[in-house]
Write a structure and sequence with these properties.
Elements: E1 13-17, E2 20-23, H1 27-39, E3 44-49, H2 51-57, H3 61-69, E4 72-75, H4 78-86, H5 96-110, E5 114-118, H6 123-134, E6 140-144, H7 153-165, E7 170-174, H8 179-187, E8 195-198, H9 202-205, H10 215-219, H11 223-230, H12 232-256, E9 264-265
Parallel strand pairs: 3-4, 3-8, 5-6, 5-7, 7-8
Antiparallel strand pairs: 1-2, 1-9
Helix pairs in contact: 1-5, 2-12, 3-8, 11-12
Length: about 270
């Protein structure tokens, strides 16, 4: 997979999902890649891709560029996992909210300060407190709720530089897709030695603002239905428009046999 930072790219295999390379990783292998990046002092970011993100990326060049430059594009949604397995890749779901806590646990063990960036008013601080309750050794480098406004490259550069000055080694970014992916791509050059994770809904899930779907629904690929019932006005377009588009595109991919192409390497 092409990357603007070849020295930082993961060597994990990739598979095609409606034209987007996705890394064939598991939660443990993804965490290993992240740990190696931080230990090496690299500036990098990780995207947790799902149906919504991949459909958006077909029309959004900035999101495609973010995916192309990411250290990992991990399969956050079960439909992506199913496509990967059909292509013969030993892949598992790498769920952003779970990986946010895994990253906090890793950071606590390694003594790496973590910065919480995103969410609504007070949410980042609440998330940080939740994480520290789980991992008392966790060092909090900072918490910040950025303004709800379109991305501005100069402001992103200032935000990233401030994060770097805080001493953070890991940043949990919760701005929602595609804003968080684009923000991380713009921020990475201004935060040397920092690993950024675009964990989206983790901020709301782990602070109790939004309930997570039952485990059986998550395993069955029905998490979207649970979330839609909770927030229909906000999520109707994501699930009632993007999901059918994804199904049509995947079926077209399968008919053309693209899922049987040789596995690519980053």
């Amino acid at each position: 997979m092409a990357s603007a930072h070849p020295a930082m790219a993961s060597t994990a295999p990739t598979f095609d999902v409606i034209g987007q390379p996705v890394h064939g990783v598991t939660p443990s292998t993804a965490l290993t890649v992240m740990e190696q990046a931080v230990a090496a002092g690299r500036s990098a970011f990780v995207c947790f891709a799902n149906v919504h993100g991949l459909v958006l990326a077909r029309q959004d060049a900035e999101l495609r560029r973010a995916y192309a430059e990411a250290l990992l594009v991990a399969p956050d949604g079960m439909p992506l996992v199913w496509v990967g397995r059909r292509a013969g890749v030993a892949v598992e779901r790498v769920y952003g909210p779970d990986m946010a806590l895994e990253a906090c646990g890793l950071a606590a063990r390694r003594g790496w300060p973590v910065y919480f960036f995103g969410g609504g008013n007070g949410v980042a601080r609440s998330f940080a407190e939740t994480a520290r309750a789980l991992y008392p050794a966790l060092m909090i480098a900072g918490v910040e709720t950025p303004p709800f406004a379109p991305l501005d490259a100069e402001r992103v550069a200032r935000e990233a530089a401030a994060i770097a000055r805080s001493g953070a080694r890991v940043v949990l970014v919760g701005l929602g897709c595609p804003k968080q992916e684009i923000w991380m791509r713009l921020a990475a050059p201004h935060a040397p030695g920092v690993l950024m994770l675009g964990v989206g809904a983790a901020f709301d899930f782990h602070t109790g603002r939004v309930r997570q779907a039952p485990e059986w629904m998550m395993r069955s690929g029905l998490e979207w239905l649970y979330r839609f019932v909770q927030e229909p006005r906000r999520l109707w377009r994501r699930y009632l428009v993007n999901n059918p588009v994804f199904v049509v595109l995947v079926l077209r991919q399968l008919v053309r046999g693209r899922d049987h192409r040789p596995v690519l390497r980053a």
